[in-house]
Amino acid sequence: MSNPRQMHLNIFLRAFGGHMGAGRLPGVNPYDTVDPDYHIRFAQRAEAARFDAIFTASASGFLEDIRRTTFFGLDTTALQSALAMVTRQIGLISTVSTTFTEPFVTARQLATLDHLSKGRAGWNIVTSSGDAEAQNFGQDRILAHELRYARAAEFLEVTQKLWDSWDADAFEKSAARGVIADPEFVREIHHAGEWFRVKGPAILPRPPQGRPLLVQAGSSSDGTAFAARNVDAVFTNQADLAGSRAFYAWIKAEAEGFGRDPASLKVLPGLIPIVAATEAEAREKKDQLDALIPRDYQLDVLRHSLGLNIDGLRDTDPLPPFPAVESVNSRKGRFLMLKQLLDTPGITLGEAIRRLNGLNHTAAVVGTPAQVADEMEHWFTTGAADGFNISAPSYPWGFEAICDLLIPELQRRGLFRRDYAESTLRARFAA
Amino acid sequence: MPSPRKQMHLNLFLNNFGGHPAGPWLPETDRRRVTDITYWQNIARKAEAARLDAIFMAGAVGHVQQPKMNPLIGMDMLLMLAALAGVTSRIGLISTLSTTFNEPWQAARQFATLDHISQGRAGWNIVTSTSENEAQNFGLDRLPDHAARYDRAREFLEVTFQLWDSYDADALLRGKEQGWMVASDSVRAIDHRGPWFKVKGPAILPASPQHYPVLSQAGASEAGLDFAARWSELIYAGAISLPEGQAYAANIRERLLRIGRAPDAVKILPNLIPVIGRTEAEARAKEDYLNSHIHPETGLERIRELLKIDLSGLPDDAPIPAFPSLDQINGHRGHYQRVADYIHQNRPTVRQLIEWVAPSGRKIVRGTPAELADMMEEWVQAGACDGFNVNPSHFSGGFDDFTELLVPELQRRGSFRRDYAEGTLRARFGTTPPSASLPVLEAAQ
Fold first, then answer.
1. Where does the Luciferase-like domain lie (chain A) (predicted)?
2. How far off is chain A from B191, nearest CA to CA, in Å?
């Protein structure tokens, strides 16, 4: 019996887990964030669970208060290169910013990861979002949103030209002519645009996939337009089913507007499944994590991610009005998602803190494997998702519960693969 | 009881096709190995089994010569070494990275990552790049001039040191106690502002096991020698003769003293390309085999450059036609003279000259394991170096000869370790990292 459609599930490899309380659990060693063995164990377990890919996010500086950073740790492309050696099938998606890197270097790095993994590389294309990132690269302020995406578009064009600068069999054809790389098969690109001048050719053979799987995580209008035109999968944070359906319909239509088959763009909302054998146990785990979050952390989210002035407010006081989205230059998607979560008439500070919990920009489902699978299936079958970018709430417990309880439930329902079939990540997402 | 011999350091200079110019053109060379990590894993495992100090990878960010003849194609070196970290446990991993075409924040993060992933085995070979083709991949028409590149390199290093120093050792543990990822009073912005870089910092990951990667550099020019003395811990010199090597080492030691670094803070490791045979006859046969596969263009280009004559199109057995005399030469007169002397004394054919000139300028030494070990020990005893950056003549044959014939000979003599000791790559070399607060050497006259 063939299965018409199965979910794509990426697993988000991040420090400690998707719940902000996870790093404070007893027994957590914060230096796991830079421990190779910790990452290797994670990757091998994720592969045994048959996830499509390991997704690693990254920033080029501290996006927010240094204390509560979510993007922290190793260079993700170097980390994924190491993980390529201890896995055989799972995809390896690295985040690289187009705002602070050069296309020649980035094209080479991603092609390298693709060669190292024999066709399992993915690129999460980000444009960066914080002044603190810009300030690590000689700029006082981050480029304006539309300029970052203009740069990203040309950046992507250059990387594609560099990957295409070598024919797939350039070595063989050149060898037949008695040379290493014949200019007929390895061509200069002579790109000259608004942002970049790059002569080329690339310094290494064409990557096995031709280009890595392209992923994008922006939820702003510039970001989604870029995604609809260019990428294979979009990772989006949506507060609820209705929001995700609307986004799904909109971006698929956009993709079609660019002449694409809408099925070629996969929509993967972020999701934190908090799974246990009983619903009570799952709720208990969530409460335990929630209790570990310092109140200051939530207040910082309201101040910095939403730009609300809450100084002097008590829990019973109403929140001040939300600023207009037009006034936000960075992480617009996150702003909109939080606004949707919190912007109800008369909401108090105390209620806002309760709603945020530790999951402030990712949807969460709490319950038994069957309950969580029901919810995921509902999203998947009613036009809200082609799969999910899964964050475990915590490690090791939350991650193991997903692998041991949730994945088998999805497999029983025929919603998720029991074995890998395709040999490249791109082919897996095209299937 | 004889005093224990001074042990030498041996890096594997790992490149696609080896150090002999015939490497890419041998019948057994499959160029597809360039992107085949399985191939490189096997080399790395063998290098570790031979107890080599480190794998050293050079490279460029563009085609430094026409792609037809360019052997320096390949994967990103740092990522390749990150991958090899997973299949090795002791050998050092030294990646080249250019300060001219990268950003210090990113470079500092990448090397800290390599050091974390390898648990203290990372090294950085600092280069400033040398070709217009590289510049033209980064929006520039021309390579920035020499002085500008070294000035940028100096500031680049200053920034990376500040970033590596931006975390206290317990920043994460204290952060967890306080309920945060990082304790904010254990991490410092660096607020660097210089002519080349403005970097706020801090780094985005905690200090790595070695704190700083082991720094390597190949100083040759005055500015390069100063830079190497100021910043590096390993210097891979290009000396060919022993007196040259001794002079180079003395020059470096003198600069170290002037700047206030200990003379033994730095290890000098000249390049060595051994051609090894069990007997002298076997070694000679191997060299003849290699020479016979030199691509004519490799020699013809060098002859054009040095003698200003073009021999392409002449039959292999033709004699060398007349060429300009010394007073008409504007290029490197020392090299011209060596070639001219060779022609006058040996009356070579075109092919013989190609085979002689193509490998010239590289320290290719032919011999039995005993002969090579004698030479290497002599260099170390004479103060010319602390070991060698060994670039096998070709892969895998020359590499196998190096690890299976030459290394065991050195081990028998007590000149090379039989086992790794505990500790980081820096502990193995016994070098001292430069301090970010050292004075800057007076610019050379």
1. 28-384
2. 9
